[in-house]
Automatic annotation (TrEMBL):
One Pfam family linked to the record: MoeA_N
CC per GO annotation: cytosol
Keyword Lipid biosynthesis: no
Family: Belongs to the MoeA family.
Keywords on record: Magnesium, Metal-binding, Molybdenum, Molybdenum cofactor biosynthesis, Transferase
EC number: 2.10.1.1
Protein name (record): Molybdopterin molybdenumtransferase
InterPro entries associated with the record: MoaB/Mog-like_dom_sf, MoaB/Mog_dom, MoeA-like, MoeA_C_domain_IV, MoeA_C_domain_IV_sf, MoeA_linker/N, MoeA_linker/N_sf
Natural source organism: Solicola gregarius
Domain MoaB/Mog: 190-329
Length: 417
């Protein structure tokens, strides 16, 4: 075998090239009418114009009495305005009253204001009477009346295509009478871990077996990115088992994510099995961690598949760098990638030339600004250190060192974007 020669990153693709390739080959999923809550946190795929006014009808902001302002003007404790109570308007009661001069109608919060009334006197400013009411305090004309259409008018553009459906947007749509909304489906991600050394949490592990942390981590990371995820039980390092498990899963997958079996070993089952199909490219990326990667399509439906390396930190970082943008592309959610933020570096960092390094770190904002501190070691197996991090420092390909006090680019994990 020829000895390795030339630059350490010769033959490797850059992170940017691989990510571009993934994003170019994926398209957004087809939108459909989803029930409102299903569409939570998804971008809406239509402009929404209001079909109704909000408020729909002029209504009371207080429990009290609907009156004509002229009939109560100047009322005080000593000289109350006494009016006959000629009816009642309660929220949800369809009765429509007209108020004749010199009378009052009892009214509840949210109930339609009778025509002829221009002011609501809260019950606290009266004796609360039924047959007749003594009003002890004046209010300005129009007090406690919520006019029809003061908030939203029929035909107003209330949400633009692409807006994210959060609690407030969903509340508004329901208030406009929308039960369904056009949005892309949440991608269904099937996560598979390969490795004959793996065991399920809860089972016994022996001297040469380990727990399958990756499939749990990646299934959780997919959910955090807004997807639905299904975790498949451990698949041993056998091409037949892997091919069978994969083909069983395709029916429920918009994206398959595997971990393990993509490097140079004798039992690298993912690479071995999928390379034969010719539809998945296995590449080496100039990044650390996360060097061996694969992306392509499998099955009759050409389901996209991301094959991530098995080292836990490599799998996590790879999912953050390639998986999260892939899912956001499928959801039609911009921006595809987590924005970088700048922070003051609290320690020196060395980084390999020609590779982009993702350094586990702790990010905080204090009174002096944003600060980031590397945590744990750099080994790709250090899941304990990974769990202690809340950020990744991104050291560019052409940087071999960053010094304490430098401004570093940081991916702050777990933040909505
Ligand atoms: N000769 C070479 N060896 C390796 C290279 C290389 O270029 N030449 N690359 C190294 C790098 S970098 C990485 S990353 C790993 C990737 O390996 P695989 O994707 O083939 O993964 P495995 O060999 O199956 O496992 C690697 C490591 O991770 C542990 N693992 C795997 N799956 C899980 C899981 N579900 N939960 C927890 N831990 C898991 C596994 O036990 C191994 O320790 O290859 C290097 N080797
Ligand atoms: O790329 Mo591996 O991901 O360095 O451990």
């Amino acid at each position: 075998m020829a000895p390795a020669s030339g630059h350490a990153t010769e033959g490797m693709l850059s992170v940017e090239d691989h990510l571009r390739n993934v994003l170019e080959r994926l398209g957004p999923l087809q939108p459909y009418d989803q029930s409102l809550l299903e569409a939570f946190d998804l971008p809406v795929c239509e402009d929404i114009e209001s079909p109704i006014d909000l408020p729909q009808f002029t209504n009371s902001a207080m429990d009290g009495y609907a009156v004509r302002h002229a009939d109560v003007e100047g009322a005080t404790d000593d000289r109350p305005a006494v009016l006959p109570v000629v009816g009642e308007s309660a929220a949800g009661s369809a009765t429509s009253y007209a108020l004749s001069p010199g009378s009052a109608i009892k009214i509840m919060t949210g109930a339609p204001v009778p025509s002829g009334a221009d002011t609501v006197i809260p019950v606290e400013a009266t004796d609360g009477g039924d047959g007749q009411v003594a009003v002890y305090e004046d209010r300005r004309r129009g007090a406690h009346i919520r006019p029809a259409a003061e908030d939203v008018r029929v035909g107003d553009l209330v949400l633009e295509e692409g807006a994210i459906l959060g609690a407030r947007e969903i509340g508004l749509l329901a208030s406009l009478g929308r039960s369904h909304i056009r949005a892309r489906p949440r991608p269904r991600v099937v996560v598979m871990s390969t490795g004959s050394e793996l065991r399920e949490p809860g089972q016994e592990v022996g001297a040469d077996t380990i727990y399958d942390g990756n499939s749990y981590m990646l299934a959780a990371a997919a959910r955090a990115a807004g997807a639905i995820s299904y975790r498949v039980g451990i698949v041993p390092d056998s091409p037949d088992d892997f091919a069978a498990a994969l083909s069983d899963q395709l029916v429920r997958a918009d994206l398959v994510v595997t971990s393990g079996g993509v490097s140079m070993g004798d039992y690298d089952v993912v690479k071995e099995t999928l390379s034969r199909l010719g539809t998945v490219d296995f590449v080496q990326i100039a990044m650390q961690p996360g060097k061996p990667q694969g992306f392509g399509f499998v099955g009759d439906e050409r389901t996209p598949i991301l094959t991530l390396p098995g080292n836990p930190v490599s799998a996590y970082v790879s999912f953050e760098v390639f998986g999260v943008p892939a899912l956001r592309r499928m959801m039609g959610r911009l921006p595809y990638r987590r924005p970088l933020v700048q922070a003051m570096l609290a320690e020196d960092i060395a980084s390999p030339d020609g590779k982009r390094q993702y350094v586990r770190a702790h990010f905080e904002v204090n009174h002096r600004g944003a600060k980031v501190t590397p945590v744990g070691g750099s080994g790709s197996h250090l899941i304990g250190g990974l769990a202690g991090a809340n950020a990744l420092i991104v050291v560019d390909e052409d940087e071999t060192a960053l010094n304490m006090g430098d401004t570093a680019n940081v991916l702050v994990l777990d933040q909505n974007f």
